[in-house]
């Protein structure tokens, strides 16, 4: 159903959408002949003229986007859905920093519902009760999993699962079909990613079962039935699902190169395709959410290109990690 309360918000979003960078822009950034050319193009796109300036601008753009979306949101439930991924991003960054100490301030996102300092305090002092129950529970599960495996990937897997679960519950509370369907997509993608993670880690059925989300379109039993079996059997079982092409291409790349980078990029692309349905919404909250996802992808892509070029990562390797560029 259309929600005319969002008429002004959608008009603002439509204007902002015209300013989003295109795939051709990203290709030109990536293929710049040298650093000077890259930063000249970034300056023209209002993203700074040096690495430090670009990083600062990207952080500012992220904070401004989140602030705007929160301002345009007319429902507390929508605000929570808009900010949830940023809270979980900060949880992930700070929890990893606790176990693998390094400077992470530049990785934190401003504007979520939880202040990053509050998360840091809860982690360093062990006072989880200072956080909302869902976040405290996510941290405790990730900590317990890491203690058993001593693998940073376990933190990622568990927090992916917890994010998907909280997003689903928030979507049900909000009651908009678009968000419930998006939560199902997130669940399917999380389950697929964790199936391959567990396969790579040599994990067992019990570990995989603890990571699976039950609100996807793919039954949990499908993943559990093929634990310990050749990946080809799992792929063939998805032949008539919406995810077959994604999984087949990702699995082929994994078998050829021993890397899940292609699968992860395809998983990043899938939600971007899904949110395109929001372009047909005249009045409603969906365009706000879709713009947030698209803008976030733009910022992450620019950051990946700049860091890759500064660190002399081969262009093809950088391209492989950016949605839709390869």
What's the helix and strand layout?
Blueprint: H1 7-17, H2 23-30, H3 35-44, H4 51-72, H5 76-99, H6 116-125, H7 133-149, H8 152-174, H9 177-201, H10 205-211, H11 220-225, H12 231-237, H13 244-257, H14 261-274, H15 286-310, H16 315-320
Helix pairs in contact: 4-15, 5-6, 5-8, 7-8, 8-9, 9-14, 12-13, 13-14
Descriptive report:
Helix 4 packs antiparallel against helix 15 and helix 5 packs across helix 6. This protein has 16 helices and no strands. By secondary structure, it is mainly α. It has 3 domains: 116 residues, ATP synthase (C/AC39) subunit, domain 3 (Topoisomerase I, Chain A, domain 4); 101 residues, V-type ATP synthase subunit C domain (V-type ATP synthase subunit C fold), CATH 1.20.1690.10; 100 residues.
Number of helices: 16
**Helix residue percentage:** over 70%
CATH topology of the largest domain: Topoisomerase I, Chain A, domain 4
CATH C-level name of the largest domain: Mainly Alpha
* Class per helix and strand makeup: mainly alpha
Q: What is the domain tally?
A: 3
CATH superfamily of the largest domain: ATP synthase (C/AC39) subunit, domain 3
Uncertain segments are none
Which descriptor suits the 3D outline? globular
Number of strands: 0
Q: Averaged pLDDT, please?
A: 89
What letter string, H or E per element, gives the SSE order? HHHHHHHHHHHHHHHH
Rg estimate, integer Å: 20 Å
- Biggest β-sheet description: none
Please report which band the strand proportion falls in: under 5%, 5-15%, 15-25%, 25-35%, 35-45% or over 45%: under 5%
Assign the CATH architecture of the largest domain. Orthogonal Bundle
Distance between the termini: 37 Å
């Amino acid at each position: 159903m259309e929600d005319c309360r969002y008429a002004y918000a959608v008009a603002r979003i439509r204007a902002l959408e015209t300013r989003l960078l295109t795939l051709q822009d990203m290709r030109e950034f990536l293929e710049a002949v040298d650093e000077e050319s890259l930063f000249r193009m970034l300056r023209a796109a209002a993203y700074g003229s040096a690495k430090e300036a670009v990083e600062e601008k990207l952080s500012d753009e992220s904070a401004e986007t989140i602030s705007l979306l929160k301002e345009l949101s007319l429902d507390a439930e929508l605000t929570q859905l808009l900010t949830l991924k940023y809270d979980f991003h900060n949880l992930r960054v700070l929890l990893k920093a606790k176990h693998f100490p390094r400077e992470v301030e530049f990785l934190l996102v401003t504007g979520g519902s939880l202040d990053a300092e509050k998360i840091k305090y809860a982690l360093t002092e062990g006072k989880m009760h200072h956080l909302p129950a869902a976040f405290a529970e996510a941290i405790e599960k990730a900590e317990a999993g890491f203690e058993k495996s001593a693998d940073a990937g376990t933190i990622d897997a568990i927090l992916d699962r917890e994010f998907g679960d909280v997003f689903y519950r928030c979507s049900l509370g909000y009651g908009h079909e678009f968000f419930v369907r998006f939560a199902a997509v997130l669940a399917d993608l999380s389950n697929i990613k964790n199936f391959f993670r567990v396969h790579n880690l040599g994990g067992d059925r019990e570990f995989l079962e603890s990571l699976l989300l039950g609100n996807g379109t793919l039954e949990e039993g499908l993943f559990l039935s093929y634990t310990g079996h050749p990946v080809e059997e799992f792929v063939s079982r998805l032949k008539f699902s919406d995810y077959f092409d994604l999984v087949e291409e990702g699995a082929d790349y994994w078998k050829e190169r021993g890397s899940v980078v292609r699968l992860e990029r395809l998983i990043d692309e899938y939600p971007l395709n899904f949110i395109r349905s929001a372009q047909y919404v005249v009045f409603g909250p969906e365009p706000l959410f879709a713009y947030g996802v698209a803008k976030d992808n733009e910022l992450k892509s620019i950051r990946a290109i700049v860091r890759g070029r500064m660190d002399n990562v081969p262009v093809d390797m950088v391209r492989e990690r950016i949605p839709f560029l390869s």
